Structures are given as C-alpha cells and as structure tokens.
Amino acid sequence: MDLWLKTGSFGQLPNNGDNNFAGKQENGISTSGLNHAKEVESVDKLDSDDPDQSNLDISISSVRSHEEVGDSAATETRKRRRKYNSDYIRYGFFWRGTPEAPRPLCLLCHKTLCNESLKPSILKRHLVKQHKESSRKPIEFFQEKCEKHKSHLKEGAPELIEPTVREHVTSESFRAALSIVKSGIGSSLVKPVAKKITKIVLEEKVKYEVENITLSSHTLKKRIAAMDENIKNQLVARLQQSKYFSLQLDEATVSGERTYLQCYVRYVFSGEVHNDFLFCRPLSKNATGETMFNVVDDFIIYNNLDWSQCVSICMDDAHAGTGRWRSLARHVQEIAPFAELTCCCFYHNELIKKSLPSYLITVLDEAARILNSIKERAPSSFVYGTLCDAMGGEHCKLPRHPEISWLLQGNILLRLFELRDEVQILFRKCDDLGDQVHSFQWLLKLAYLSDIINAVNQLKQALRGKGITVFQVQDQVKRTRAKLNMWHEYLDKGDFGPFPSCAEFLVTAEKELDDVAVKAFKDHVQSLCSELGEYFPEPNPCLEWIRNPFEDKKCIEMARNKLSSESFDSLTAMSADAELESLFWQSNLNSFWVKVQHKYPELAEVALRYLLPFPTAYSCEVGLSMLLSLDSETSNPLDLEPLMRLRLSDIEPEISKLVHQRGQCQS
C-alpha cells in the first residue's frame, strides 16, 4: 500500500515466499482480489481536497485500463481462427484475405463469407441452397473454376466479388429499359405489374425491393442514351478492326413531312460477316447530294474511321438515277476511289410497279379507293363486319392503305378478292366503284394481280435475312424467271393452272375468257421476267470460283485471265486442300473466306470485296418499318436514332460496364 501511495502505481512486489498474489484463495475468493478491494476502499475514504487526489484518480483509471486490455487479449487468445482446407474445393469454395484469417470465397457467385463459416456443413449448405444445379458437379468442375480465378488474379485484374445490392438494382434498371425499348411496352405499365406479381407470388418485402428499380421517364431516357453510346462505341471499335466494310444508304420519308437518311454497315468481325445499323439522321426537304454526303462523312471522321476501308456504297435503284444521288456518288468517288457504287438489288414494290401496264395500275388505284371507302365511313365498316360474320367470311377486317405501293405488300389484294361477295353487297350499283366491284373483267384482273404479287412476295421471303449472299440472290432470281417463262407457256395454251385465284374465279363465274385479256396477261408476265433480268444480271462466270473453289474445275480455269499468276497458283493449291474443303462444307460462304485470310490473303481479298456489298435492301426495309412505328411515338427526330439502334443492332450493351462507370461517377 505504501508503495502504491508513493509511486502512484502497482508494482511487482517482491516474493518472500510467504505472500503469493497469484495463487492463494480463501473460501474460493482470490486473496489478491480482496487486497485490491480493500485498497480501493481506503482510497475512497481519503479527503477530496487532498493534494494527491488527482494522482490517485489517474492511478485508478490506469489500473482499470490495464485490466480491460488484459481481458480483451485473453478473449482474442481464446478466439479460434479457422484455416482453409483444400478439401473445401469440392463445395465450390476457395479463400481470400490473409492466410492467418482466411475467408471462404464461393467460386460460383463470388460471395465472401466470414471466417467462422469455414465449416464443411455451412459450405455444403450454401452450395445446395444457392447453387442447386451445380451441387452434383464433379470436383474437376470446381477445380477448373479455381484455376480460372487464380489466373484472373495473376493477370492483375481486380478480385471478383459479389455485386452490391445497389449494383444489382442498377443492372436490372438497364435491362428493363432495354426490354421496354425492344418490346415497345410502356414503362408506366411494367413496374406496377412487376410489383403486383411479386407481392402475390413472393412476399410483401420483395415488392419494396422492386420499388428500388427506377423506371421513370427521365431515368429511362438516361439509360437509353447510355446503352446507345455503348453499342455505338462497340460498333466503331469493330469497324476500326475490320479490314473492309460496306455501306448502304436509303432516304426514307415519314408521314409525307420528315425525311431521314438511314445508313447500314456490313463488316468483318470475329471470323464472321456482320450487318448492323450505323445511324439515322434527319434531312431537310431540299437536301442535296452534297448534304447527304456530308452527313455520312461527318460520322466517318468523328468516329476515326477510314474511307479507304470502304469497298462499296449501296443505294436504292429507284433513286440512283436522280441528280442528288449522282452528286452523292461523285463526292464518294472523290474521297474513296476504290469504293464500288452499287444499287439495291431488290425493292419488290418498285419492281412490280415498273412492269405493270396502265390498265393494271388503274385496278390498283380503284382497289385502294374501295378499301379507304370502307374504312373511312363508320357505318360502312360496321355493316361490312356484320356481313362477314353472317356470311362466314374468312376475314372480318380490311387494312387501310391510301397508297398503291402498300397494296403490293403481303396478301392485301388476295384478301380483298376473297371478300368480293361481301364487298358487292356493301357497294350497290350506284357509283363507279360499285360498277367495278360487279364487273367480271375487273375482278379477273384483281385475281391476276393477287397471284402475281404473291409470286413476287415468295421471292422476297426467300431473300430475307442478313446472311444472304449475292449468289443466293442470283439463284433465287433464276428460279423465279424460269417459273415466269413456264407461266407464259401455260397462258399460250389458255391454261390458268399456275394462277389459283384466276382459276377459281373462272370456275365460279362460269364465263368464257376473251383473247384480249389472255394476251394482256402474257405481255405482263414477259415484261416482269425482263425486269427481273435487268435488276439481277447474270453473274460473272470468272467469279464463280468464289462460290465453290473445290467442286467445279472449269470455274477455276475461267478465272485464269482475271487473277495474277500467284493468285491463280494459290487457287489451284486451295482446290486440292482436303482440310479446307472440309471447312468449306462446315461453314457458310462468308465466314469461310474470312477464315482463310491468313493462308490465302490475295484470294480472300478478292472474294470479300465481292461478297461484302449489300445484296438486298432487307436492312433498309426493316429499318423503314421500324422508323414508321417509332415516328408516331416520339416528337423529337433526334430521339429516333438511339431507339432504332437498340432495336435493330445485334450488339448487346455492356450493362456491367455501364453500372461500374456509373458507380465511379457517383463516388
């Protein structure tokens, strides 16, 4: 006690053998504890104005702090740190952190558990409950995952960890925005429905988690802009890597007021030829060819693309002869002299209209007037629907198409012809349209037009798709022309067998057909066959080796004069390569020539320059349909391009990257 009062702290008292502060106990109570209690009590009895009072308070707090440190150290000593066992890999777990205190890391969901969870039972429960589909996987499956994780860390990449709840919510917000754009469903409908479903099927608390996914119009617009920029950057990066690319341009007029310039690109990436949407920019009504060229040139320059990579620019044949497009072609050739200027091989509306004589165009015009007359007047439309139901008509609704060009698509004329009985009842013989509906000659021409348009539409359907090659187009056109020549021979005999609508009408009408109508139909069939020949000229026989360099040796001999001696020797060697022949039959034509670039670069360059130009206007037709639907949904023309890119592009947005960038901006 005297030592404590003099020094202000407990010191180690000398051990005389009689006093043992650690071991002696009386009645189960520690002697050192009793002595300590007495000493503290005596200190409490000291006068408060004692000069050494402050020193005593400091000493007491020091004693207590020493005791607390000792207790925590003892607790830390008693706490057991579990170690990672290599057998835990069978449950899909590796470890992260320090070797002294490792934490289990799930190799499937990258979730990190606490050190106390390093127990086989806990790890197995996590595998079975969270990853039931992988619980029966062999141990080699998890070992492969572990090796990939180790190599990922060796490359200096950040450690894979479980995304936070906020990142999950943001990712789902991006995916919901993408689905809304592609499906056209309103954002005001998606979220309330999702909340109701989760509340009914799951639990009440899940509804509040769905509430965190923001789908307001402002947020949706930001998500669309971010995904649009991400897809465009990916596309530009692909074009910069591609050795060649080709462009397709189309001028589209919407609602008779706004005009847009659509542009699509065809390029080589990852061993395949891809088609994608490039841009859609508004144009003024009086835009010149130079203005359209500047729109394309600004996009090329702004995105650091090279005109020398462009091998072809394709445009609509209906506009190719106009002054504006000639001016555009002249500007393109000045800056890209090696780019080939081609025309879209297939706009079936223009093809049919060019071959139609005046009397058939009159029938189309009158058919459009009949359709509009029914749809514009509510009583007529109601009576027409009632008649169809009463007479068992196959179609109860007629489309409204004020322009003749729309009648050339689908089966509109065929539907009108099949409903001729109902239309005849609706139109009395009181005006010119009523007279036409009841006229035998007019109905026969309508039946003939429906059969011819159906044949051309079959050709169009055969040429749909982004992977169509110029050889496939030529083959389909060749078959269609052979079919038309056969129909011409049938008409010479007075046989309408190839024309099902005409044959059915002649049987039901029980009237004889005059020679004038037969001759008119024959002339039109021959004119249509000639138009197809002008649209699709015969392929160059010197380039047939591109179609198949292994089968026909005559095609290889014909290419001798078109190829250099080195290229011809390479072609001869390629035709005898059994390994490449096996690759040819396993791949499509475009990807085959992309894959042989490293071995036969000169032959691949000639082939790709011939295959890369757009063979059809399929992309433009799909884009025009999308443009018409989106134009009615948005009032700002500048908002159309992001929406069209998200709907038409095959490139998926990198949502995880966008979420990461957004998190960095907020931090």
Note down, in words, how this protein is organized.
This protein is an alpha/beta fold and 667 residues long. It folds into 6 domains: 2-78, no CATH class; 86-154, no CATH class; 165-215, no CATH class; 225-344 and 629-666, 2-Layer Sandwich (Nucleotidyltransferase, domain 5); 351-535, no CATH class; 542-611, no CATH class. It is 59% helix and 9% strand. It is built from 32 helices and 9 strands. The strands form 3 sheets. A 5-stranded mixed sheet has the order 7-6-5-8-9. Strands 1-2 form a two-stranded antiparallel ribbon. β3 and β4 form a beta hairpin. α9 (217-241) crosses α31 (640-648), α10 packs parallel to α12 and α15 (378-391) crosses α18 (420-426). It is globular. The two termini are 59 Å apart.
Structural descriptors:
667 residues; alpha/beta; 6 domains; globular; 59% helix; two-stranded antiparallel ribbon; single chain
Helix fraction, binned, reads: 55-70%
Number of discrete helical segments: 32
Largest sheet: 5 strands, mixed
Mean pLDDT: 75
| DSSP strand count | 9
Structural class of the secondary elements? alpha/beta
**Rg, nearest Å:** 41 Å
Q: Which term fits the overall shape?
A: globular
Number of domains: 6
The main sheet orders its strands as 7-6-5-8-9
Oligomer: single chain
Low-confidence stretches: 9-67, 72-77, 378-384, 387-393, 395-402
Give the termini separation.
59 Å
Strand content: 5-15%
